Amino acid sequence: MDAWLDLARGPLFTIAFLIMTLGLARLVVIQLWLVVRRRHLLRGARWRRIVTDSLSWALPIRHMVRGAIALTMASFIFHIGVVVVPLLLPDHVALWERLLGINLPQIGLELADWLTVAAIASGFVLLGYRAFAQRARSLSRAGDYAVLLLVLMTLGTGYMAAHPSVNPLSWQMMMLTHLLSAEVLFVVVPFSKLSHVVLFPFERFSQAYWCLQPGAGEEVAHALWGEEVHV
Known about the structure:
This protein has 231 residues and is an all-alpha fold. The protein has eleven helices and no strands.
């Protein structure tokens, strides 16, 4: 088992990380090229509104949909946990530093525990919404469920490996499961909706990225959610 853990921590982690990094870099290069080719669409763009709207998503109060505030908050909390814990958990920072050779900040273990539990709970809220809300179910595909379950598996196994009292398996088995699920997630990121981790800025420049006319985003949102939604 120790040999498997060494393999997962070493070569497999490095390979999965490189696939994710190169895959995301490829997507960024493609989108930059598209923006350059379609730069004429950016003439006359409302840059002030675009920048203000993009920054407003950092705390999405004005984007909450009436009747779906809990869902919006669950999504917000889920994203915070999924980003902060993998990057800044002390054990993870040790891996990043060994791989990248740079010093990185850390968060405390207690905060990491709270964020992980909150992200898992929020993830199940999002999963339930996809499964039981007709509007979301009609837009969801098998891959959407699979990716969300993979994220929850990675978070859950990591939490259980760090807390023997809730771990039904040996530490070695749970840690190996955590590492392998995380590495599968790394490989999946560039080829799934998780790629919006780097594509988000391009999505905000919808005139160039999606070739939409001004106001088209509002029309789509109103069709899905009703006139009360603000985008």
